[in-house]
Design goal:
The protein is of the alpha+beta class. 33% of the residues lie in helices and 27% in strands. It is built from 17 helices and 35 strands. A 9-stranded antiparallel sheet has the order 1-9-10-11-12-19-16-15-14. β30 and β31 form a beta hairpin. α6 runs parallel beside α17.
Length: 648
């Protein structure tokens, strides 16, 4: 039985099936995302959504959906489903669904009278092309399939409104058609492995409603262009393959292409395999460079998320070469910024003050996984450059205090940490001065750099300076951040110490090197466990602290305010687990293992086989935000592999 399998009773109940989404990517920035039953509930949903470099790398929904109709004895049975204004669903194709499973590829099984039809979808790796294979498993009379494409040709965060500016031209291509609604956008090629009949029947389908956007208080209704439909006869046992891409394809090769892609898939037969597949969906290869996208369906390539997620998305699934390729791309951009002040067009936020600190942490994970000798050979030079860059005050918003060795940053008017929600041009959580995780990461970086440079005679003097700098900041760190209640202040700005209980202290106690001793770590861990821990990660704010908002609901402003004031983040579990195992040793393995069970439940919730961006801070801990988030998948994977190594 498939690990990800859903039966008729769930699928035909829209209250249960519409909240479940599926995602597929091509590891080049394009994706397909929708609900299990194929009803789009977000404006970012689509059958073929691709990045366009000429449009600032934004994602564009070209093909929104494809309605299939089974025709027997002249009677049509439409398998599609859309939600129209007022909450009206039409057609109601979900009532024909009998089963959905997602072991190798997403496979839907329909039954219409005596007809049994399966539908399987997959992306071609590194190509902006999605294939859908329809197989007629059973039929007692002549059967024809009709396919009606719904076109959007718009940026994924906008909406399409009926207009006269569209290009209505249709070009015939082998076994299909090509069309482009607006100048400057790619041409969409829709083709089959069998010759179809194309029927021109142009029309706007108006007032299609996206319920998730309605809930979020943002524009939620659009019109989609349907230029006509294809018809293809199909025999029992036969398969028809539909291709949608931005270039024509040899339709005779579609069957081989489909089978080759299936053979390369890792079956989703377990919790680990689901997360492994999800991890690879964040990879983006672009020429000689390789990146990580922060999440779907509205993520971009972010510097901080790249370094935070890199170890879990690569090393935890034994993809060392991918780690090295992505790190090479990201380090190149970071070191260029350190040397020249030039930011990266593709990697956003490379100029933020904590980026060098997270880069050093990511390299440290490489050393722990692959070995210090390999890390020394490959990364000693950039580690040395980054540590010295911070020490000499090279970053315009990162300052080392000469007396205490502590780092400070100015976050009054802009978000400088991962808690980066903004309202009215100002940070919602105004963290400024000495931030607890900045200083913990810096101490850890100094100690790691010293360990990496051990035995290198040409670096002996600098190594001693790094160790001295780390030693200098140990006592000031404790005096500055550890309070009488046994936890760490979130930030200290001059005489002001922020008392809110936030999860950044978990980062400080989860690092390999910490200014805190074991007793102090345990004290902080107890507070984190008592006030922040949930089955879905750590809350971003304790319920006992002022301003706690457990859910991302309401207007856009309300959601932005709540973003870092209560909802739980699974990625923080990675640091919590590291801290717990450091304090309790092997006796803590069983406890952390039980904590991971809460994430395994999510493989059949939200975006199946992946983890959402955040979760409500209160029961039932519902998933919110992006349907699949890189740092969350990464740190749960890293924790999983840590446990497996300890259990061996």
């Amino acid at each position: 039985m498939s690990y990800l399998k859903f039966d008729k009773n769930l699928l035909i109940n829209l209250d249960q099936s519409l909240p479940k989404e599926m995602l597929r990517t091509n590891q080049a920035g394009a994706y397909h995302c929708t609900t299990l039953v194929g009803c789009n509930t977000r404006k970012q949903h689509g059958l073929l959504v691709i990045p366009i470099e000429d449009h600032d790398d934004k994602q564009y929904v070209l093909l929104s959906s494809l309605d299939e109709t089974v025709i027997q004895h002249g009677a049509p049975f439409n398998l599609g489903i859309h939600r129209y204004r007022g909450g009206v669903y039409s057609p109601n194709g979900h009532k024909y669904i009998r089963e959905f499973d997602c072991e190798d590829v997403p496979r839907m099984t329909y039954r219409v009278g005596g007809v049994i039809l399966t539908k399987e979808k997959l992306f071609i790796s590194q190509e902006n092309r999605i294939l859908i294979r329809y197989t007629l498993v059973e039929a007692h009379s002549a059967t024809t399939l009709r396919f009606r494409p719904f076109l959007a040709f718009r940026e994924s965060n906008s909406l399409c409104i009926a207009n006269d500016a569209i290009n209505r031209n249709i070009e015939e291509v082998p076994n299909g058609i090509a069309t482009c609604l607006y100048d400057g956008l790619p041409t969409l090629y829709m083709q089959f492995n069998h010759k179809p009949t194309w029927v021109n029947e142009p029309n706007w389908y108006k007032d299609i409603e996206y319920v998730k956007d309605l809930e979020r208080g943002v524009p939620y209704c659009e019109d989609l262009w349907v230029p006509g439909y294809f018809e293809v006869p199909i025999k029992k046992g036969e398969s028809i393959i539909f291709s949608a891409g931005v270039a024509p394809t040899n339709t005779r090769n579609l069957s081989k292409m489909f089978e080759a892609e299936i053979a390369a898939r890792t079956p989703r037969t377990s919790f680990f395999n689901c997360l492994k597949n999800s991890a690879k969906q964040f990879y983006i290869r672009h020429g000689e460079s390789m990146y990580l996208i922060s999440g779907f369906p509205w993520g971009v390539v972010l510097a901080r998320n790249t370094f935070m997620a890199l170890p879990g998305l690569t090393l935890a699934i034994d993809h060392r070469a991918d780690y090295e390729a992505i790190m090479s791309t990201a380090l190149r951009a970071l070191l260029r910024y350190a040397e020249t002040g030039e930011t990266s067009r593709r990697i956003k936020g490379i100029d933020l003050p904590d980026i060098p600190l997270w880069a050093l942490w990511a390299i440290q994970q490489y050393g722990k996984t692959v070995g210090m000798d390999a890390a020394r050979e490959k990364y000693l030079e950039p580690v040395t450059q980054l540590v010295d860059y911070v020490l000499r005050g090279g970053h315009p918003n990162l300052y080392v205090d000469a007396e205490t060795g502590l780092l400070s940053t100015d976050g009054h008017d802009k978000a400088v940490s991962w808690m980066n929600s903004m309202l009215n041009g100002l940070p919602v959580v105004r963290r400024t001065g000495r931030l607890v995780e900045f200083n913990a990461l810096w101490y850890n970086a100094l100690m790691f750099a010293a360990a990496l440079a051990e035995g290198k005679e040409d670096l002996a003097e600098r190594r001693e300076a790094w160790l001295a700098e780390a030693e200098k900041m140990k006592k000031p760190f404790v005096d500055t951040f550890l309070n009488e209640s046994g936890y760490l202040y979130d930030f200290v700005d001059g005489a002001y110490a922020e008392p809110s209980v936030r999860p950044n202290m978990a980062i400080a106690i989860g690092l390999d090197y910490s200014p805190l001793d074991r007793r102090q770590r345990k004290s902080v861990l107890d507070v984190v466990t008592r006030e922040l821990l949930t089955p879905k990660g750590l809350r971003t704010l304790s319920p006992r602290s002022y301003g706690y908002r457990p859910s991302i609901v309401g207007s856009p402003d309300e959601r932005e305010f709540a973003m870092h004031n209560g909802p739980a983040r699974p990625w923080l579990m990675g640091f919590y687990a590291d801290a717990y195992l450091r304090v309790f040793g092997m006796s803590g393995v069983g406890y952390i293992d039980r904590m991971l069970i809460g994430f395994e439940d999510d493989m059949t919730q939200g975006c199946i086989g992946s983890l959402s961006q955040l979760y409500d801070g209160n029961p039932p801990y519902s998933g919110r935000g992006a349907v699949s988030h890189a740092t969350n998948v990464a740190e749960v994977l890293r924790t999983y592999r840590t446990l497996k190594r300890l259990e061996q």
